Amino acid sequence: MSLRTEPTADVLVVGAGPTGLLLAGDLAAAGVRVVVLERRAEESNLTRAFAVHARTLEVLDARALAEPLIATGTFLQSLRLFGRTGIDLGTLDTRFAGLLITPQYELEQLLEERALARGAEIRRGARVTGLRQDAEGVDVDVQPAEEGAAPVTLRGRYVVGADGVHSAVRSAIGMPFPGKAVLRSVMLADVRLDVAPGQVPAFNGVAGGFAFIAPFGDGWYRVIAWERGSDLPSDVPVDFDNLKAVTRAAFGTDFGMRDPRWTSRFHSDERQVPRYRDGRVFLAGDAAHVHSPAGGLGMNAGIQDAANLGWKLAAALAGRGDDALLDSYHTERHPVGTQVLRASGALVRTVLASSPATRRLRNTVAAAAFLVPPATHRIARFISGIGIHYPAPPGSHPLTGRRAPDLPLAETDGGPTRLYEALRAGTHVRVLPRGAEPQKEAGVVTVTRADAGSTTLLVRPDGYVEHASDR
């Protein structure tokens, strides 16, 4: 059957999860013609992710979305790993020193509203069946969901696959996805509890498995539980009595768990593609890397992929960026994905220590390590994303490639009062010391520090320092 070809878009984003929606909003805000293709015909409240870390909240703050999202959930200042061992996130040097627990669909709603308001087009029930790329663009074959609808071909100058672990885009370009399954038949549920856990989020592993409980803030709790030896397919319904039993084994109580409004089951893999870019096709989020659920790092890494890629694609389309800039997406984000994969994998293997002696040693060593402030701070910075940084050229200023803190800015009439408000313009921001004379630059917002710092910074749209100078 011949395919009907539709007009060109600048960028076709496949997948309307948090990664794809943030990317679409950024591109549309930059004046890029963007179409999002989502295979689901309708929005779904099914949600696996629920943890939003500090760096992701900073990314959202630069888009005026952090405060509205925080209002939907519960903000915690510590992350409990297992037993009594936890990480204090309240000491992080950020406006958002902690962890937000909120359903993924709350974030998706905010990101979708922003993308649509900026001019992005979202097509639901659009299943990608193949693609072909050439020197000028990419043809994407799409099967609409409507019964009897003819397939169409859309053409974009670039395509981004943000369509999850079973990515059609990744399959279409033949990109390997090496790795293995880590946990099989993990149970998920949203429930009511008669008794709230004494500390949340609560996470504990025993010989037979583990359980995790986190509050959404509206009386509902997310429970994640896994039983050693269980290998049921993902489509087998969750046995609620079994879920309660696994929770009791981990915590000594099921907290009066009742009234499940939603249950699901999934397999957790550890996988990563070797390349995040293949010509004019990019992969982001779970299409590029998947992790164990430990630490709640996966969705956050995907959102930060999108923040890194969006401004680079916009610059390339506007003639302000070259292939080297686009290649830097892989150069910067692939090592981060590897770090996240290793860290979440190590954490889940530690939690699942099988013998009582190993668990006792784990708890003793972990408790001792977490009493050492430098170690605790490093772990908190990594898990939160605050400590992630990118490679810098030899001889660069020490701040190059580092996350820019939310510096206070000198007040102007109606102007931003802090750096992340200035980043809402979606462009580079030059931060000058107090008293410096601003110079107009095309495509750059210039602001003045309100603190006593003497370093001049050029901050990228994703909040990382591109250049710094003490002169």
Automatic annotation (TrEMBL):
Residues 9-343 form the FAD-binding domain. GO terms for molecular function: monooxygenase activity. Its cofactor is FAD. InterPro entries: FAD-bd, FAD/NAD-bd_sf, RIFMO-like. The keyword Oxidoreductase applies. Pfam families: FAD_binding_3 (PF01494), Rng_hyd_C (PF21274). Keywords: FAD, Flavoprotein, Monooxygenase, Oxidoreductase. This is FAD-dependent monooxygenase. It comes from the Bacteria. PANTHER family: BINDING MONOOXYGENASE, PUTATIVE (JCVI)-RELATED, TRK SYSTEM POTASSIUM UPTAKE PROTEIN. It comes from Streptomyces griseocarneus.
